[in-house]
């Protein structure tokens, strides 16, 4: 049965205590908390929520969105106030807006930007753990910057995907991929110097960005070289799998552009 209203709801969440977005049996997920809050504030009104994608356990989102199908028109200010008053402290709504009946949150996501925050050469303050990955050994940041550029363009990312099925579209395009000094995410308990991997594309495979970051950390550690990265992106490569996956908590979904 069709719902009366169709909205796009933009949210933020800290993923450190959640097992990703998607609902899973007996696990605390962001979608579970969102629907619990919606059921409470909507007081019996029929609704359905659909997220823009999945996130791994402990991955955070500066910008995430879900499509809200509902049988009752919403006052935007009241909805935001009620949701944020009753939701957990690590989840908040930023905006809600009406979208066309034919809007599809999965198909209309045009470009996503992820950011992976990291530091090196020291053990970080424990308070940093939900936000930034600390590599205790020294990394060659300049070599990592050169390696990051190799991922730009259309490549076969079979080796940068966890358990792809025969139907998985492993050829993907990365629009940009850079490593920069972190001037975006700051806290007084962060290390004095940190960095961020910024990566943009229309869509990403399961664990793709964490595997890319893992390969870049291996480059910075001297475990592999630039030729290894080039070879790993070829469809007919002899490399079976990229073995290092970066920890989840350094990864943040930064922004999504919709058509």
Largest β-sheet summary: 10 strands, mixed
Q: What best-fitting shape do the alpha-carbon axes yield?
A: globular
Share of residues in helices: 10-25%
Number of continuous helical runs: 5
From the alpha carbons, calculate the radius of gyration and give it in angstroms: 20 Å
Distance between the termini: 26 Å
Could you tell me the number of beta strands? 10
Q: What is the CATH C-level name of the largest domain?
A: Alpha Beta
The CATH superfamily of the largest domain appears as: Pseudouridine synthase I, catalytic domain, C-terminal subdomain
Please trace the helix and strand order, writing H or E for each element.
Answer: EHEEHEEEHEEEHHE
Q: Averaging pLDDT over every residue, what do you get? A: 95
Beta-strand portion reads: 25-35%
The CATH topology label of the largest domain is Alpha-Beta Plaits
- Unreliable spans: none
Give me the secondary-structure category. Answer: alpha+beta
Number of domains: 2
The CATH level-2 architecture of the largest domain is identified as 2-Layer Sandwich
């Amino acid at each position: 049965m069709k719902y009366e209203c169709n909205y796009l709801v933009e949210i933020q969440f800290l993923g450190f205590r959640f097992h990703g977005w998607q609902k899973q049996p007996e696990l605390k997920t962001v979608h579970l908390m969102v629907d619990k809050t919606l059921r409470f504030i909507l007081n019996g009104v029929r609704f359905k929520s659909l997220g823009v994608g999945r996130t791994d356990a402990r991955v955070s989102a500066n910008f995430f969105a879900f499509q809200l199908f509902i049988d009752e028109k919403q006052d935007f200010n009241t909805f935001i106030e009620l949701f944020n008053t009753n939701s957990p402290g690590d989840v908040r709504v930023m905006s809600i807006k009406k979208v066309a009946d034919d809007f599809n949150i999965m198909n209309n996501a045009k470009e996503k930007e992820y950011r992976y925050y990291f530091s090196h050469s020291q053990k970080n303050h424990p308070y940093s753990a939900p936000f930034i990955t600390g590599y205790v050994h020294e990394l060659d940041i300049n070599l990592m910057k050169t390696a990051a550029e190799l991922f730009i363009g259309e490549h076969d990312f079979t080796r940068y995907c966890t358990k792809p099925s025969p139907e998985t579209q492993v050829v993907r395009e990365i629009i940009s991929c850079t490593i920069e000094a972190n001037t975006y995410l700051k806290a007084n308990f962060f290390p004095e110097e940190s960095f961020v991997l910024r990566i943009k594309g229309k869509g990403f495979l399961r664990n793709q960005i964490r595997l890319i970051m893992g390969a870049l950390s291996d480059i910075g550690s001297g475990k592999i070289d630039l030729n290894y990265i080039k070879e790993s992106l070829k469809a007919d490569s002899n490399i079976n799998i990229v073995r290092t996956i970066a920890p989840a908590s350094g990864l943040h979904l930064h922004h999504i552009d919709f058509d």
